[in-house]
Specification:
The structure is a single chain. This protein is an alpha/beta fold. The chain has a domain of 155 residues: 3-Layer(aba) Sandwich (Collagenase (Catalytic Domain)), CATH 3.40.390. Helices cover 41% and strands 14% of the residues. It contains 8 helices and 7 strands; from the N terminus they run αααααββαββββααβ. The strands form 2 sheets. It has a 5-stranded mixed β-sheet with strand order 3-2-4-6-5. It has a two-stranded antiparallel ribbon with strand order 1-7. Helix 6 crosses helix 7. The N and C termini lie far apart (82 Å). Bound molecules: zinc ion. The site of zinc ion has 4 residues, from helix 7.
């Protein structure tokens, strides 16, 4: 009697185990396969993979390992390591480089980028509602005239009226100022002005010092209108521009013209249309 009960129990157990095995083999496995075959929908990577530039040619190894053998990708994107720029950032930089290239001729921003050592766009950000605070320290430099200050103020005004989206508060005090405009008698060589800039890691300008000479390289005293031209050039630097290769622009290294050219204005306008920061793929 007891043996028969044990037999029935063992038989029931065998049936149960067999059923479980069958369930695993024919019911659960196909379900699991269909789940893993479901493609990831609209991931960021796949968007960039389609739109990404052909130059970004390193294989996406991290993604290949995580997915079950996908069809060969038509284009591939660079690996994005810990701390590297995201795909969206790389795509944005690629678009900025394209716009700069497309503007060659009508602006000199491509010359500026080609000539720069760091390929970083620097500019002020959001400074229409909160103007950049500029301080003019008192000076006793030889040949300094109060009318020089009016000349510099009119140069700031000229850039503002040109449509660049930066405003300047020219009445800031020394403690709150972000920019100082100072004077010296002469520079060495042909130079008559200098602008030193500071910026943060995103390429946003945070401060600057503009230094203007009161005598030219030959020792001749500058007149107020010469100072206005010098200031136009240095304020171009203060806005984030570098030199133009064309003598028709105020940003030519040794200015020959006495006002902003249409190309100066277009170049500054384009700079302020683009996000500041690095333009290289890997930085
Ligand atoms: Zn210059």
């Amino acid at each position: 009697m007891l043996e028969r009960r044990i037999l029935i129990l063992v038989a029931a157990l065998v049936v149960l185990l067999a059923s479980a095995a069958l369930w695993n083999a024919f019911v659960r496995r196909p379900a699991r396969a269909s789940a893993s075959a479901t493609p990831d929908t609209a991931s960021v990577e796949s968007v960039v993979r389609t739109a990404g530039p052909a130059v970004d040619s390193a294989p996406d190894t991290a993604r290949a390992a995580a997915q079950p053998a996908p069809a060969p990708a038509p284009t591939v994107v660079p690996p994005v390591g810990a701390g590297g720029p995201s795909y969206i950032v790389l795509l944005a930089r690629s678009e900025i480089r394209r716009r700069i290239r497309a503007s060659a001729g009508s602006t000199y921003l491509s010359d500026i980028v080609a000539g720069s050592t760091d390929s970083i766009l620097h500019r002020w950000d959001g400074r229409v509602s909160t103007p950049v605070r500029v301080f003019f320290p008192p000076t006793t430099v030889a040949n300094f005239q109060p009318s020089f200050l009016d000349a510099v103020r009119s140069a700031f005004q000229r850039w503002q009226e040109a449509g660049v989206p930066v405003r300047f508060n020219l009445d800031a005090d020394s403690s709150s100022a972000e920019v100082r405009v100072q004077w010296r008698i002469q520079f060495e060589g042909e130079r008559s002005g200098q602008t030193d800039l500071q910026w943060d890691e995103d390429g946003h300008l945070t401060g600057g010092v503009v230094t203007l000479a009161t005598f030219d390289a030959k020792g001749q005293p500058f007149a107020p209108d010469d100072v206005r031209v010098l200031a136009l050039h240095e304020i171009g630097h203060l806005l984030g521009l570098d030199h133009s290769p064309d003598a028709g622009d105020i940003m030519y290294a040794q200015p020959k013209v006495r006002d902003l050219s249409p190309r100066d204005i277009r170049t500054a306008s384009l700079l302020y249309d683009l996000a500041p920061g690095p333009l290289r793929v890997g930085s």
